[in-house]
Amino acid sequence: MKYYKNILKLVGKTPLVKINVLNPNPIVNLYAKLENFNPSGSVKARVAVAMIEQAENDGTLTPEKIVIEPSSGNTGIALAMCCAVKGYACEIVMPEHMSIERRKIMVIYGAKVTLTPAEKGTDGAIDYVKEIVKKNPDKYFFPDQFSNKNNPLTHYNTTAQEIIDDTDGEIDYFISGMGTSGTLMGVSKKLKEFKPRIKIIAVEPEEDASIPGLKSLHVSYVPEIYDESMISEEIHVSRHDAEHATRMLALQEGIFCGISSGAAMHIAMLKAKEIKRGTIVVLFPDSGVKYVSDPIFMPDKCLECAKICRVRTLLDLEYIKSIREWWS
Fold first, then answer.
1. Residue 328 pLDDT > 80, yes or no?
2. Does 260 participate in catalysis according to the annotation?
3. DSSP-assigned beta bridge partners for residue 235
4. Is-contact 210 242, C-beta < 8 A?
5. Helix spans in 65-211 (H)
6. Which of 21, 141, 146, 179 could connect to 252 by a Cys-Cys bridge, CB 3.0–4.6 Å?
7. What's the rounded Cα separation, in Å, for the pair 155 and 104?
8. How far apart, in whole angstroms, are the C-alpha atoms of residue 165 and residue 259?
9. Any idea what DSSP says for residue 156?
């Protein structure tokens, strides 16, 4: 009989998928690593399991403690899933403007969700958790994805190695969004050891753009795990361009991903146009399921994108009007 001990054993070994229609340069190989295939639906499943299991091993996390973490969504969901499997109480602190789907998923896993003011962003959630843990150090276990070395380490050991294996080592550019920086730091370190001349591109939101899952280190706390030397180039993306690429991925590649994936894809397309040849791997952190209530996926916007991209579809204005009642 072949089976897995529990759902956590399915974390990792996510697929690498070729981008076809949206690749602007036929001489360039463009691939997306789909992290939504992880349990909990995002790249953060890797980090959550690594942080929890290391804390169990070193005795930092004991059964009576509450696991508490600030998160914009994916890490919180992944930790809630992990705690459900292992039997820990879990509290996730997140900005109140994040999509309702994220809150619901965490609660379904049994986690308590505490909301902080939207205007303070993720930094406000971080401050809240640090204060409450400082007052009650024996009550809580705070994994702290922004400083926990197991964040980049798990990407060094797993994500990067999977990319090397799946590309047969033929990779010239790695593109990923900047959040906690864990993915970029871990993958970059391994890839640079394997191929020193590889280019690592960090995708950040423009300073006035709010893109779930991405942080601009120029206006936010710089994570302790961040090492600038691991990055070859930082490129900023607008909310508009991130959203448009996200919709194009769904309509033209059949890949339903989150907005940070669209941001990375936008930069990947620009880079593919810029270079003469080579192989680009872009990481898609999560699926679009948690963003269905976000205006990005409103039917009229999908229709507009379909027209721009000349996609064959039965969507039209009359149909869009007819579905507004049940869509909302």
1. no
2. yes
3. 203
4. no
5. 74-86, 100-108, 121-135, 150-154, 160-166, 182-194
6. 21
7. 28
8. 27
9. I
Instruction: Give the strand pairing for 16-18 and 28-34.
Output: antiparallel
Q: Annotated catalytic, 271?
A: no
- Provide mean pLDDT across the span 99-123: 93
* Active-site choice (42, 99, 181, 260): 260
Residue 31 confidence (pLDDT): 99
Nearest-angstrom CA–CA distance, 192 and 303: 42
What's the confidence (pLDDT) of residue 244? 96
- Over residues 88-112, the mean pLDDT reads 95
Structural domains in the chain, CATH included, are: 7-37+152-295 (3.40.50.1100), 44-141 (3.40.50.1100), 298-327 (no CATH)
The pair phi, psi for residue 200, each rounded to 5°, is -110, 120
- Average confidence score pLDDT of the chain: 94
What strand order describes the sheet that includes 89-95? 112-116, 89-95, 66-70, 140-141
Specify the amino acid at residue 304: E
The DSSP bridge pattern shows strands 199-205 and 112-116 to be unpaired
Residue with tokens 């920086």: 181
